[in-house]
Amino acid sequence: MKKSFAVIVALFICSALLVSVKSQSRSQAANGPLTLQALNAMLRREAGRSTIEADLSERIEQFGIAFDPTPDAISQLRKNGAHQYLINTVKRAADKLSASAGKVVATGLQPADPFIEETLKVMRDYLDELPNFICQLIVLRHADRVGAGAWTEDNTLSYELTYNGKEESYKPITPPIEAGKRSFGSVFESAMNDIFGDGGRPIEDVRGASSKGQFASGIASIFGAESKAVFKPAGKERLGNRQTILYDFRVPKESSDMQVRVKGFDTYIPGYSGTVWIDAETKRVLRISEATDDMPKSHPLTYGETSVDYDMVKLQGLDGDFLLPTRAEMIQANHGQKRYYRNVMYYKGYRKFETDIKIGGDVTTPQKPPR
Predict the structure, then answer these.
(1) What is the pTM of this model?
(2) Which residues have C-beta within 8 Å of that of residue 64, sequence separation ≥ 6?
(3) By the 8 A CB rule, do 41 and 72 touch?
(4) Average pLDDT of the chain to the nearest whole number
């Protein structure tokens, strides 16, 4: 019995020493640049439990990084759950590190990139040829109102989404939810984030987080000439069964058409940065991930990010397949108040938009898209 007790005590002492060493190393590392190993470990073990990505971004902005964010390094971060805002923060920290080390950063007119130039042509042709259609948009809405990283489900909304004349419109088809089903009390909640009772509202009037522009307008915002987007090669990845070429991009505030709207505040137009996954063979974009760059700290929305997955989809009523969104994810945050909102969106039931219907014989009446 004494021997067993001694072993237990020895193990306890060893464990205590290990915990003490780990605590000391964490304490020392807390005020220094993050290594790739440490950041990946935090994403795997702590994100969603004792910390959130916004906290990691804030720490990187303050203390920087101690690694080169190569395409392989960024791919590791994504596999461990990193979203675009955190990745953008990592890359900005690397730019600051290069500048402080006196490295020359290329400016001015860059050499033409044949691959991205061909992609731009393919996507602009796609925008011109995309037919009018209707589909169902299902929005699963979640929130984290304490900054723990654990999402709780709020509600589900659905819309009939019409794409007609290169414009998108949304008609609510969710039955209304009983008013006052939940109440959170604060002014901020009631103005921006009390999302219950939104069934049947137009998407522009829905309280809480919402977004538009995952279709042609979102692609045009990046690949249109007026966006003045700057593209930079960012490696290769397999996306499903397709080999893709990745490019980072940045759209400056001066040419951005992204609009951030919060009730009671002026519309703000930020610049934004992100990554596109381009099919190596067809030059079609299969994924776009982007995040705001320069939201003012005084704004109730401190950052927002969106990721959209595209695939070739059969349009009922038309021959051939078309490149269309299948899934999207949006995160909006007020980091100062520790409130985070996440929408996961699915697009189903694509069909041709009929521009006219017959009423009583040969009389044809135009069918206007819902507003």
Answers:
(1) 0.78
(2) 33, 34, 93, 96, 97
(3) no
(4) 78
